[in-house]
Amino acid sequence: MNLLRLLPEFIMLGTAFLLLVLELFLPRGSRKGYAVIGILGIAAAAISLPYQDFGPALAELFLQDQLSIYFKWLFCISGVLILYIVMLYEDTVKNWRGEFYSLILFALSGMMMLASASDFVGFYVSLEFVAVCLYVLAAYLTESRVTSEAGLKYLVTGALASGFLIYGISFIYGATGATGFAEVAKALQTVEPTGYLVLGIVLTVLGLTFKISSIPFHVWAPDVYQGAPTPVTALLAAASKSAGFVVILRVLFGALGTVKGEWVAFIAVISGITLLFGNLAAMPQKDLKRLIAYAGIGSAGYLLMGVAAASEMGAGAIMYYLLTYIFGIAGTFISIVVFYNSEGTDKIESYAGLYKRAPLLAFSLFIGLLSIAGFPPLGGFIAKFYIFMAAVKEGLWVLAFIGAMMAIIAMYYFLLVIKSMYLRQPANEAPIQVDMMTRGLLYFVNAVTILLGIYPGPVTDWVMSIAQGVF
Amino acid sequence: MEQIFFYIFAVIAVVTAIAVVSVRNPVHSALYLIVCFLQVAAIFILLRSPFLAAVQVFIYVGAVMVLFLFAVMVLDVGKESFSEHMHSQAIPAVITVAGLLAVAVWLISTGSLTAPLGPYTEEALSKNTEVIGKALYTQYIFPFEVVSLLLLIALIGAVVLVLKDKGRGAGRRP
Q1: Helix A260-282 and helix A288-309: axis angle, to 10°?
Q2: CB contact under 8 A, A132 and B157
Q3: Fewer Cβ within 10 Å of end Cβ, chain A: N or C?
Q4: Is B139 domain-assigned?
Q5: What's the pLDDT band for B85 if we cut at 50, 70, 90?
Q6: Gap between the Cα atoms of A138 and A130, Å rounded
């Protein structure tokens, strides 16, 4: 019965529906219970992952393989961490509604389907499903003008990008006569790559850049990251970016891998411009969430460098990068939410002297931000190292050079934040309380980030063995 | 003959589509969009897909656009609010679009369709509705189900975003 291959998705959807219905029966003010139910649901889905057998389901439009299992792990991990962030965050929000939890679970289940979609039709529909959930989440606090503006900007840019994507897919279909990724790859072995195919690839890639917030559809990122509720920002930064890259791996490496000569140069140019723009524009930022948005654009550039390498090693490096990125983002955003609950601001200058007030928060931001920037010996450094290695191996010297320069700039702007946290005097000496649960989780997340840096062996071996199958 | 009709429909569709984004009155814009959708429906008929054509007319022209016109008229969106934003970036937008169009035309002119035609024969086309129905519930059941989830989320999202509720959260009052 190959329908069992959809078990993780079914568990996630079931939990989401359960939360939706519970909203009617549970008394108000007991929202923490929702997060616990959601985390249990995600844990159940995660437990079912190792028992999955590989193969297609649902008329071969759904494919369970090592790649999809790996990304489903990523979505489960980020899901648990994000639901915990929501639990911390909801204290400060008036007029809170429990649908938030079920929308997050719907978005995560859509991302899981995205990781398994093996057909342009299924992939496009899953992508839209995730996007609609995220549009609603980004605009969730309807009383705040900033949040509504963020949601509207996200929606309009997303609709435009979807137009590009579906137009590109129609050209690829026209050139190959197939919609399944495997059939497209098979058709391209005989069909000469013509103008139709090139146009299709270019438009599809442009449409996908929206999901990963790289040039040319990066414009939404700073405003939405800053304006959206903080847990949604974390969801966009960690899970949504991973979903974008699993799609890119499937489409570019899986379906269009045989004609990689047609798209490598294009991706390399996008990657270079994204690296330059994201990191240079991050320098003057005053708001921490906005700074992370620009740094996130820069990270999309590094990840695209791995795509431009178009090799198994590049794919493995992308997967490892996303894992370290999720833990970096989680540590950073838990600290941001705890700080916001106490101080009510995300401005970088208000973080001054945080070390004296809450050493653990300062330490988590230190580890998280430096891991995102790629500072040795943290996880992000190993990931960037693999990306550079993959790029240099394929002869992308210029791109690797730009990347190395921008990594130094990334350390500069993150170290400015860290310097003000550790060396400056706080305006207000009162310590910030962090409860036991959060402490434990922060220790765990930081430990994982450090461990991924000093002992990456098991994970990188696993990732590289998965990467053998992407082409 | 078919080609002549195709060009008539296609030209009207493109012209009205340009009119949609360039006229100042949102109601006129919506009416142009209806004309554009009708032309697309006509092109579906030329492609021997009467079912898609009917769906296009029923759903887009009938339901969506009438609802949209209704909303525009009820909300009373003024001419000014639209026109101010639409035309400040007109020149760069035209240059970008013209550039993209030139690249697209060049790529299409260098290309030729070498792919084999789809599996559906002339006989299957005459039983259009039946073929689509079968494909939708067997071959394409996965996207079909995901679309149903998508519509559910769109519904919930719309309610969540516009529902006004005083106090913390909804749910049963204690």
Answers
A1: 160
A2: yes
A3: N
A4: no
A5: low
A6: 12
Distance CA A465, CA A320 (A): 12
Token couple for A273: 């411009």
Whether residues A191 and B157 touch (CB distance < 8 A) is answered with no
Minimum distance, in Å, between the CA of residue B114 and any CA atom of chain A:
7
* B74 in contact with A, Cβ within 8 Å: no
Contact B144, A203 (CB under 8 A): no
Per-residue confidence band for B145, with pLDDT thresholds at 50, 70 and 90: very high
Chain A residue closest to B116 (CA)? A177
Q: Measuring CA to CA, which residue among B47, B110, B2, B124 is closest to residue A175?
A: B110
Torsion sign across C-alpha atoms A452, A457, A460, A466 = negative
CB-based contact (8 Å) between B4 and chain A? no
Q: How confident is the model at residue B120 (pLDDT cuts 50, 70, 90)?
A: low
Q: A213-262, pLDDT tens digit by residue?
A: 998 898 899 999 998 999 999 999 999 999 999 999 999 998 898 888 88
Contact A221, A296 (CB under 8 A): yes
Task: Break chain A into its structural domains and give their ranges.
Answer: 263-471
With bands split at pLDDT 50, 70 and 90, how would you rate the model's confidence at B118? Answer: low
Count of structural domains within chain B: 1
B92 contacts chain A (CB < 8 A): no
CA A150/CA A228 separation, integer angstroms: 6
Peptide bond into A456 cis (omega under 30): no
| B153 vs A132, A178, A187: nearest CB | A132
pTM above 0.90, yes or no: yes
* B74 — pLDDT class (breaks 50, 70, 90): confident
Show the domain range for B31: 2-77+88-119
Note whether residue B20 is domain-resident. yes
What element of type H or E holds A62?
strand A62-64
Burial grade of A395 (CB within 10 A; 0-12, 13-18, 19 or more): exposed
Average pLDDT score over residue span A174-195: 84
Residue A64's H or E segment, with its range, is strand A62-64
For A168-191, b/e burial (b = at least 16 CB within 10 A) is bbbbbbbbbbbbbbebbbebbeeb
> In this structure, is residue B128 part of a structural domain?
no
Q: How many CB pairs under 8 A join A and B?
A: 143
Give dist(CA A408, CA A416) in Å, integer: 12
Residue that the structure tokens 């999309």 belong to: A300
Mean pLDDT estimate for chain A: 90
B85 touches chain A (CB under 8 A): no
The whole-angstrom separation of Cα A460 and Cα A36 is 32
**What was the ipTM of the complex prediction?**
0.89
For residue A320, give both structure tokens: 């490892």
Q: Do the beta carbons of residue A7 and residue A72 sit within 8 Å?
A: no
In a domain, B32, yes or no: yes
H or E stretch at A57: strand A55-57
Contact B168 A24 (CB under 8 A): no
CA distance B8 to chain A (A): 22
CATH number at residue B66: 1.20.120.1200
- Nearest residue on chain B to A190, judged by CA atoms? B115
A125, B147: Cβ pair inside 8 Å?
yes
Of the ranges B3-17, B77-91, B130-144, which one carries the lowest mean pLDDT score? B77-91
Best of B160, B162, B173 to disrupt the A interface (most A CBs within 10 Å) is B160
For residues A456 and A379, the answer to whether their CB atoms sit within 8 Å is yes
